[in-house]
Amino acid sequence: MLDESIDKGLAKAAILNSDDPASEYFRSLTTSRVLSYSAQGAEADLVATNQRADGWGVRFTLESPAGSTDVIFPKPGEFNVQNALAATGIALAAGLPLNQIASALESWPGAPGRMERIDCGQPFTVVVDFAHAATSLERVLMLLRQTNPGGRVIAVFGCIGERDKDRRPGMARAAAALADYTFITDDNPYTEDRDGILRDIADGMRATGKKEGHDFSVVPDRREAISQALSMAVDEDAVLLAGKGHETTVHLGPDEYPCDDRDESREVLRDLGYTRRSSS
Fold first, then answer.
1. Does domain 13-107 have CATH number 3.40.50.720?
2. Could you tell me which of 99, 110, 100 has the C-alpha nearest to residue 69?
């Protein structure tokens, strides 16, 4: 639709991820300007080189048609580097100078509930993320394994009701492969049978050889699952609360119950004796 869209006073451009094989297909669909990007060393207009962890973030050199500059991006993981490059491409296409773009990247506070770290002074990592599909869950769990090599990874997640039943075994496989312990819980069951959803996920865990009580637990109420996961965590562990992100309620049948993973985890951590209230 790009070439046929109305003129809005700004040159049209397509920003494409060269790390994705589908980018060449999308390139064939437009005669407009194309800016490509890569975080994996592919040939592209925008490239992130010299990537290295920097606390809860990543440092890299941004190579672009407008020059190069060093960036400290305040969110970790290669997928966030790709997000930063995509945003850079949009900004360059809109005519912003590179130094202003780099400054904006470094000062970005993050999207609520997306790789949001909860820090109340506890000696383990707590992360809230919107990951609610197998691929996204796998990426975040893999990142937590890399950033917390000395501890366990504990996952809390469920699957949405009334749709996408095929994603349940895939999410179970991702958790089975990359989490040391998993709490299977509510996401948004809606009017679908809650126990049936939980059973589908648990069956997926069992299919990989995991055992209930040893490798995973089924805790329907999400608030209780969060409490149990955080109570289990010790020094250098990482706890992922996945699937709900910024959402503040769980839809269960015709009703709902309040559950903001961020607020819930802070409350549990406070009850465990941790007092600093911040997130990043």
1. no
2. 99
At residue 98, the 3 state secondary structure works out as helix
Output 207-212 pairs: Cβ under 8 A, ≥24 positions apart.
207/169, 207/172, 207/173, 208/172, 208/173, 208/176, 208/177, 209/176, 210/176, 210/182
N- to C-terminal Cα distance for the chain? 37
**In which region does residue 28 sit, left (phi positive, over 0), alpha (psi from -120 to 50) or beta (all else)?**
alpha
For residue 23, which amino acid is it? S
Burial class of residue 148 (count of CB atoms within 10 Å of its CB; 0-12, 13-18, 19+): middle
Q: Which residues partner with 16 through β-bridges? A: 36
User: 116-279: which CATH number, 3.40.250.10, 3.40.50.720, 3.90.190.20, 3.40.50.2020?
Assistant: 3.90.190.20
- The interaxial angle of helices 98-107 and 78-93, nearest 10 deg, is 140
203-229 pLDDT tens trace: 999 999 999 999 999 999 999 999 999
Q: What is the pLDDT of residues 6-48, one digit of tens each?
A: 988 889 999 999 999 999 999 999 999 999 999 999 999 999 9
Q: How does DSSP assign 155-208, residue by residue?
A: EEE---SSS-TTHHHHHHHHHHHH-SEEEE--S--BTS-HHHHHHHHHHHHHHT
Cα distances from 199 to residues 74, 141, 147, 205, in angstroms, run 38, 22, 31, 10
Per-domain residue ranges for the chain?
Answer: 13-107, 116-279
**279: which strand partners?**
118
